[in-house]
Structures are given as C-alpha cells and as structure tokens.
Amino acid sequence: MIGRLNHVAIAVPDLAAARAMYRDALGATVTEPEDLPAHGVTVVFVELDNSKIELLHPLGEGSPIQSFLDKNPSGGMHHVCYEVSDILAARDRLVAQGARVLGDGEPKNGAHDKPVLFLHPKDFAGTLVELEQV
Predict the structure, then answer these.
(1) Which is the catalytic residue, given 32, 34, 47, 130?
(2) pLDDT (tens digit, 9 = 90+) per residue, 96-130?
(3) 34: domain CATH number?
(4) Which of 71, 85, 99, 128 is deepest in the core (most CB within 10 A)?
C-alpha cells in the first residue's frame, strides 16, 4: 500500500541555523522558508537524491510543533511521510485494521499542496506517520 518515503520531518528550535547547517556543513540544496498558517508551521525542505528532509518550525499560537519543542527543546524527528496512490483507500484500509487517523479523519492539503493524513504514533511503533497522496 505505501510507496516510497517522501520525507522525514525534523522539528527545529532555530530554523535559520538548521537550514544553514544542512546547506553549509552538509552541502545540501535547501528551499527558502515557507509559512503554512493552516498547519501552524514554517517549513524548509532539504532536497536529497532519493527523498527530502522537512525542517519544521512553529508558526503562530497553538502550533503543534511548539508543543513538540516544549518536550524536546533541542528538536528531533517529528514524523515520517510515505506516499500513497489513493489516500482515501489507504485511510479506509488502515481504519479497518484498527489504526487511528488524527484530526477529523479527512485529508487536508499539506506542504506540497497534496492531500495528507496523519496516523497515531501509538499504532506505528511510536512514530507519527504522515500519508501523502501522489
């Protein structure tokens, strides 16, 4: 059902420093910061040959990333994102198997302007999973 790994998301307390580290120390191509108010985050993507790293920073009051950073002040891995060809079919299959979809269960447009869903980390070995329709 899942396709390739789309990205690994890392919550960071200092987006400019994290962006510079990936660009300067590791020589990666990084995007400019993009605010996503609907998700309460500012994102930067680190482009890799086979995937991406998504750097997440809180945006606005009530950002879920701020809650994560309150518990993990140095930052850390926030979620992994897998591609699926049909997000509704994937959701329905997972729910039928007992997985919990976060929020209202309906896909929302994510950072790539494609439908995404998040799955409860307790159902996936402690890892928050994002599914993105491609």
Answers:
(1) 130
(2) 999 999 999 999 998 889 999 999 999 999 999 99
(3) 3.10.180.10
(4) 128
